[in-house]
Amino acid sequence: MSEREVEYVVFCIENVAEALHKNGEEVFAILKTSGLLYSYIIPSYEALHTQSKEYIVDEIISVLKERNFVA
Predict the structure, then answer these.
(1) Fewer C-beta within 10 Å: the chain N or C terminus?
(2) Cβ proximity of 22 and 11 under 8 Å
(3) How remote is the C-alpha of 24 from its chain's centroid?
């Protein structure tokens, strides 16, 4: 993984955590357990990193809800 991809993953974790009122460790665990980190966030870097923060966060939360990992 490139440095930019790592920064993007951290950006996603921190901003999803803020939106869900959770800490980064909790969100990282949710993203790993759900498989979203390796099946969606990292592979979608090229497409998603150019989008707005709100769009990225909303997309990730939407997928987590679809998979029943957040309410």
Answers:
(1) C
(2) no
(3) 11
Given a cut of 90, whether residue 71 has pLDDT beyond it is no
- Report the SS3 class of residue 44: coil
Is residue 21 exposed (0-12), middle (13-18) or buried (19+ Cβ within 10 Å)?
exposed
**Distance, CA of 56 to CA of 49 (rounded, Å):** 8
Gap between the Cα atoms of 5 and 40, Å rounded: 13
Question: Which residue type is seen at 70?
Answer: V
Binned at pLDDT 50, 70 and 90, residue 65 comes out as: very high
Look at residues 30, 14, 13 and name the one whose alpha carbon lies nearest to residue 70: 30
Mean pLDDT (whole number) for 20-35: 96
